[in-house]
Amino acid sequence: MALTGMDIYKMLPKKNCKECGFPTCLAFAMKLAQGGVEAEKCPYMSEEAKMKLAEATAPLMKTVKFGSGDKTYTLGGETVLFRHEKTFVNRNRFAVMLKDTMSDDEINQKIANMNKVNYVRIGENMFVEVAAVKCESKNKDQYLKLLKKVKDECKLAVPMIITDDPEIAKAAVEEVKDLGPILYGANPQNYEAMVNIAKENNLLLGVEADNLEALYDVVSKIRSGGYNELILSTKADKAKQLFDDIVNIRRTALVAQDRVFGYPSVVFVNNLSSDKFMQLAYATLFVEKYGSIIVLDEIDYSLALPLFALRQNIFTDPQKPMRVEKGLYKIGPAEENAPLLVTVDFALTYFIVSGEIERSKVPAWLLIPDAGGLSVLTAWAAGKFSGKTIADAVKEMGVEEKLKTREILIPGKVAVLKPDIEDALPGWKVVVGPEEAEMLPKFLKDYTNRVA
Amino acid sequence: MAYQKPRQTFKGQIKEVVMGKDLKIGGESVLPFYTFDGDTGNPPRIGMEVWDVAPTGWPEGLMNLIKDVAEDPAAWAQFYVKNYNPDFIVLRFVGANPDVKDRTPEECAEIAKKVADSVEVPLVIAGCESNEKNGKIFTKISEVLANKNYAFLSAVEANYKEVGAAVGLAYGNIVVAESSVDLNLAKQMNILVMQLGVKPEKIMMNPGISAVGYGYEYVITTLDRIKLAALDQNDTTLQMPIISPISFESWKVKESTATEEDAPEWGSLEDRGIAMEICGAVGVLAAGSNGVILRHPRSVEVLKNFINSMLN
Ligand code: B12
Ligand code: SF4
Q1: Mean pLDDT across the stretch A376-380?
Q2: Which residues form the CO dehydrogenase/acetyl-CoA synthase delta subunit TIM barrel domain (chain B) (predicted)?
C-alpha cells in the first residue's frame, strides 16, 4: 500500500533539525510521500524505516527479466492502465505451446513453424520469443527429451518450463539453465520447493492458482519469503473469467497500489479455444489489456502479421512519434538516371515504401521532405505534404544537381498534387504512382522498362 | 490480509441507440467487457459488408461463397442473414463513385429499398469515396427509407449539414458522425450534428479506423480517450455508440493483398485477410467500439463467439 505523508512522519525521528533541508520532519514526510525527495536526506532515520520506505516508494509493478545474452527480455514495469496516460514500456512476448505428450510429427511441425516466422517490421525483428514446454506425461525422461529438442532446434526462443513437480522442474532447469528459462508452475501446494529452485538459479518464477484469492495468498507468502522475480496467472479457462483475472491483477497493482499483484502475467489463450482464429482474437485482447506472455497453440504468418504489428503499435511511445530524417535516400546502387520517388518522413511510411523499393530490386532514389512526421494523407490534410513542400525539398536537397532525372513519382493517394508540383518545379514531370506501396515492385519494373 | 478486488464505476453511460425496429446498441456504463465492474450494456454488434456492385479484389474463397448472389445486393444480403446471422447488413455504394459507375441517387435509393425489403435486420448505408456524392445519395436513400432507423455512414465535416438535415432531421434515420482519429474532432462533429437539431439518440460515431499496424495505435488511443471522457467525465457529447468499419481498411493492406506467388512464405492469402480483420475488430471492441463491420463470414463467426464468450 502507498504510504501517506502522515504514515511516513510516524517513522521519522521528529527532531525537526532541518538537516534534510526542510523546516520540519512533517514537511519532509509530505515531500517524501510525493516522491519529490530521497529518504537518504535525513541522516537520522532508522534502518527499518528506510527499508519500509524503499518498499513503499518502489515502482508499483516490478520489472522482471528472463532469457540470456541477446535473448534477454524484460516484462512488467508498467505504470499506467492506458497508453495515452504515459506509455506502455515492456511489450508482451508471444509463446507457442509444446507438450511432451504430443506426437513427434506435431512437435516437429510446430518447431518448424516457429523457426519460419522470423522477419523484420519497421526495424524490429519479429519472432516467437518463448517456447512454452509443458510436462503433461509426468515422466521426467520424456519431458527432458522434449526440452533438449527444443533447446537444440528452437534457437530463437527462450524455454518456459511448465511443470508443478519440483523434482522434474529441478532436472529441467539443470538442462536449460544457461538459456535463462522461465520456471512456471509454483502453486499453493508446491511453492516452497519451486521458489528454492528459482532462487538458486535466479529464474523468473511463474505462479498460478485457481483464482485471484488463492493467487493473492500464495504470492503474499512467496514475497514474505523474500522472492520477487515472479509472473502470475490463474487457471481460468473461460475467456470472461481470465480477462477478469488479468485486468484485476493489473488494477490491483496500479490502482489499488497493492504490490502483491505488482507483477506481469502469463495468459494461456491456447486454453480458451483450440481454433487458431479464436486464439488470435483472445491474443489481440490481451495485447491491449495487460497480458505479458501470451501463449498460443501455434504460430504462422497469418497470426504473426497482425499480432506482431498490433504489439508494435500498442507499445510505441505516444509522446515520441517515429520519424526519419528528411533527405535524399539512395536505395540500392542507384545512379543519376535511376527513378526518383517521394514520400513522407513518418517512419512507418518510410520503412514500408523503402522496403517495397528494395523488394522491386530497382535501384532508386527516395526523397523525404519535412512532412511533420505524418503519414501521406495525414500530412496532406495538415498541409505539410504539398506541391510547395515537395518542390522545396527538391531544391533543398540539391536533387537537380545530383540526379539527371526530371521525373518524380508521387504516392497515388495524393494524385491531386500533380499540377501543384509541376507548377512549382518548371521542367519536371510528375508521375502518379499506385495507392499502396505494395504495388511498387510491379509499377517500378514497368516504369523503368518504359523509360529504358 | 484477504484479497480485495478493485472496482471501477463511472458517472457516465453510453447512450442506447435503436437501429431498425429493435436492435439496441451501446448503453454500457463500464469499460468494454468489464463485466466485473458493472453493466456492459448491449453486446457489441456485427454487420456484414454487401456492395451495390459485384466486388473485385475479394479473396477467392469468399467469392466462391457469394458467387451466385454477388450481382444482386438483395439476394446477397438475404444469403448473409440466412447463413451467418449478422446483427445488421452494411450496404455499401461503391458504384456511386463517379469513377466507378456513377450511380444516380435514384438508382441507389431503388437498390437500398430492395435490400431493405428483403431482410429483417437493420441496414447501415455506406457511401463511396466522394463526400459530395454521398451527401446526394444519402439524402435520397433516407427519403425512400424514411423513419427506418437505418444508420448512414457517414456525415463528415464536408457534408454533415446536408447529411444531418436529410438523414437525421427530415427522414428520421441515424447519422454516423465521422472524424479523423482525434477526440476533439469527434466531439466537435457530434456537437455540430446535434446543433442541426438531430437528437442524440439518432447519432452514432466513427472516430476513425485503420488496419492493424498502420497507425492503429492512434485509433486505439482515440477510442480509449473517448470512452473515458464519456464514462468518467460524463461528457454527454461523446456518449454516442461507436461503430467501426474495420473491413474497409483491413483488406487493403499488403498483409491481406500480397498474392501467394508474391509472398510464398506467408501462406494462405485468405487466412491473412481474415486474421487482419479479426485482429482489427477485436482490438477496437476492446477499446470501446460498440459495433464492427466485417467482410468475411469466418471473421463474423469468430467475432460472434468471441463476444459471446466475453459476456456469458
Ligand atoms: C494515424 C492517423 C493520424 C495520426 C497521425 C499519425 C502519423 N504520424 O501520421 C494523427 C492522430 C496525429 C492524425 C491526425 C490528423 N489526421 Co489522420 N489519420 C491517421 C490514420 C488512422 C492512419 C494513417 C497511417 O498511419 N497510415 C499508414 C501509412 C503507412 O500510410 P501512408 O503514409 O499513406 O502510406 C501508404 C501509401 O500512401 C503508400 N505510399 C506512401 N508513400 C508512397 C510513395 C509512393 C511513390 C507511392 C507510389 C506510394 C506511397 O504506401 C503506404 C502503404 O501502402 C488515417 C486513416 C487511415 N485508416 O488511413 C487518418 C487520416 C490520414 N487522417 C486524416 C486527417 C484529416 C487528419 C487531420 C488533418 C485531422 C484534423 N483535422 O486535425 C490530422 C492532421 C494532423 C496534424 N494537424 O498534425 C484523414 C485524411 C483525409 C483525407 N483523405 O484527406 C484520414 C484519411 C482519416 C479520415 N478518413 O478522415 N491522423
Ligand atoms: S533531517 Fe530528519 S530529523 Fe531532521 S528535520 Fe529532516 S526529517 Fe526531521
Answers
A1: 96
A2: 20-255
- What pLDDT, on the 0 to 100 scale, is given for residue A452? 56
Surface-to-core class of residue B168, CB atoms within 10 Å of its CB (0-12 exposed, 13-18 middle, 19+ buried): buried
Domain around A402: 327-451
Contact A305 B274 (CB under 8 A): no
Least confident of A130-139, A311-320, B273-282: A311-320
Q: Delimit the domains of chain B by residue range.
A: 14-311
Q: Is A135 marked as a binding-site residue?
A: no
Distance B150 CA to ligand 1 centre (A): 29
A55 Cα to the center of ligand 2, angstroms: 20
Q: Do B221 and A301 touch (CB under 8 A)?
A: no
* Binding site membership of A413 for ligand 1 (Cβ less than 6 Å): yes
Question: In whole angstroms, how far apart are CA B31 and each of A18, A176, B39, B127, B232?
Answer: 48, 42, 9, 31, 10
Distances from the Cα of A160 to the Cα of A200, A266, B108, angstroms: 17, 11, 58
| B153 pLDDT more than 70 | yes
CATH label, B14-311, candidates 3.30.9.10, 3.20.20.20, 3.40.190.290, 1.10.3720.10: 3.20.20.20
Per-residue pLDDT tens over the stretch B193-204: 999 999 999 999
A407: CB partners within 8 A, 6+ apart = A339, A340, A428, A429, A430, A431, A451
pLDDT by residue (tens digit) across A16-38? Answer: 999 999 999 999 998 888 777 88
Looking at the domain assignment, is residue A319 inside a domain?
Answer: no
